[in-house]
Write a structure and sequence with these properties.
Blueprint: H1 23-47, H2 50-61, H3 64-69, H4 92-104, H5 106-126, H6 128-131, E1 137-141, E2 145-151, H7 168-182, E3 188-193, H8 208-225, E4 233-238, E5 257-263, H9 265-272, H10 280-297
Parallel strand pairs: 3-4
Antiparallel strand pairs: 1-2, 2-5, 3-5
Helix pairs in contact: 4-5, 5-7, 7-8
Length: 312
Amino acid sequence: MAEDHRPIIIRRKKVVHAHHGGAWKIALADFMTALMALFLVMWILSMADDEQRAAVAEYFQTPLSVAIMGGPRDGSPSRVIPGGGPDRAHQDGEQMRIDYRMQTRPADVRRHFQNIQRQIERAIQADPALRQLQAQMRLDLTREGLRIQMMDTDQRPMFEIGSPTVAPYMGRLLRTIAPILNSVDNELTISGHTDSIPYSGGYVGYSNWELSSDRANASRRELVAGGLDPDKLISISGMADRIPLEGADPRDPMNRRITLVLHTEQSADFIRRQGLLPGDAEEFERLLQEELNEELGEGGLQIDQEPTSLFL
């Protein structure tokens, strides 16, 4: 009976929940710091010009060991394949890679020409004697490249009336922008334009054709005197009054203008080929072959041999 009244002992363990600490706060602080750093980098890059962004891109293309420890780059002259150059910021082989990328990506090509446009605008703004000419200039991007137009007004003509003699401020303007045009690899064309007011002798003697050509050549001489490499020029032409400004009266003095075009690589190649693109001759012959087959095929005849090439 004594065993039936034995006390039952229940043991309960008290579980103490320890505090989890503030590790999550450290993780959140690290995340916010990284996010702030990302925003700062994006802000700095948005303010950088094309050359600085190209330098940043080049840095991340450099091998990690070279970027951290220093040492020769891919274009270093100490490598087996010679390279490099006098530029301390970019060695020639590396700069060539950047320039080639600019010629192959449309967005980079556009930024390239926009950068040149800004340089020209800053150079004109920095010269008090040229600021008053800003209203007579038009800089715009076209499919050919950067187009720079310098136009006459009755109050401030770029040339003496009816003459290819360059006005002093026009000469100063051309010599100011010459180093900027010479600092890039793009090739240049120059064209002269006149209004529709003819010479007294009409087109028999000296006419607007000769005047526009002479003014284009006078502009060329000023650019070369300002430091432009003559080898960058691929075309100098006189257009007379045949291409007036859009929306302008043919007699408007603004039609008396000089147009410089800094060309893209494709546009310059198109001019050198005189409008004939690669494959055009073969495509024309193919279309001619199809047309001949269609005409003669109606009578049951087929011409399989290739026609004589029209492009020799």
